[in-house]
Amino acid sequence: MTGPEPAGAAPHAVPDLDFALTGVTQERYAAVPTLRFGVRVSRSGGGPVRSVSLTTSVRIDVTRRRYDAGTRAALAELFGGADQWSEGLRPLPWTQTTVQVPAFDEHTTADLLVPCAYDTELAVTKYLNAVTDGDVPLDFLFSGTVFFDAPGGTLRAARVSWSKDAACRLPAALWHELIERYYPDSPWLRLSRPTWARLDAYRARAVCVGWDQTVNRLLDQADRARAPESTGRTAPPDRTDAAPAPRA
Asked: 157 with 2: CB under 8 angstroms?
């Protein structure tokens, strides 16, 4: 990073870092649902650390837990049916985050903040929503840059080994409690702008009070349209969904 080392100085020793997860809690005052993971960073070789730019990739190792029949059915969209389950399981990438770890000698702790999106189209959200009990097995894969003092006072930098990782188990109930606190009894659904415009126009025509009533009315119409299929009769059209007649 800086000028050459003084003549006769010993080769600089790169700190060898190890990582371990110490626990997970809800971040109480975040604007969006966020989990706080504690990470213990230890130096097992080399000299004192000036700082670490630590990048962490988090993924769910779905193979490290058991699933009952109901959960398997809920996860069929991700991993396939019963005949595909053994081959369909694969780790689910969750997020990647970077944190700056300050100077330390032997060990220190750092906090990793992981936002929890509630977009029901995301594979991670579908998985976490389906797993309601037990623990969710997580893998933390570490990389980044460690800065340290070499002999002679020069500042050096080295890459954190790609082999560094750690495991953690996230209580499924903790994720559900966190989501419920931010979105009480309200799953989140993404719609394209044209679809939302059509739905909003229908809501206004049908004079629905809120989106729950709007969607329920459309679902009721669909149920009534399917009911006559068993008798061979055609259901009459729902006039609330028809375009308003032009004025004379």
From this structure: no
Q: What is the rounded CA–CA span in Å between residue 110 and residue 51? A: 12
CA distances from residue 159 to 134, 140, 189, 200 in whole angstroms, order as listed: 36, 17, 41, 53
pLDDT reported for residue 224 = 85
CA-to-CA distance for 71 and 128, rounded, in angstroms? 11
Angstrom distance (rounded) from CA 240 to CA 230: 25
Cα–Cα distances (Å) from 110 to 11, 42, 138, in that order, read 29, 11, 18
Structure tokens at 44: 């097992």
Q: Compute the distance between CA of residue 89 and CA of residue 91 in angstroms, rounded to an integer.
A: 7
Among residues 164, 148, 166, the alpha carbon closest in space to that of 156 is found at 148
Count Cβ atoms within 10 A of the Cβ of residue 90 and give its class: 0-12 exposed, 13-18 middle, 19 or more buried: middle
10-residue block means of pLDDT along the chain (248 residues)? 42 83 94 96 88 96 92 90 80 95 94 89 91 96 92 85 93 95 79 82 82 83 75 53 43
Tokens, residue 16? 């060898």
Burial track 28-39 (b if 16+ CB lie within 10 A, e otherwise): eeeeebbbebeb
DSSP assignment letter at 104: B
Residues near 177 by beta carbon (within 8 Å), at least 6 away in sequence = 26
Angstrom distance (rounded) from CA 145 to CA 14:
11
CA distance 245 to 241: 12
Give whole-number Cα distances, 193 to 42, 77, 198, in Å.
49, 25, 9
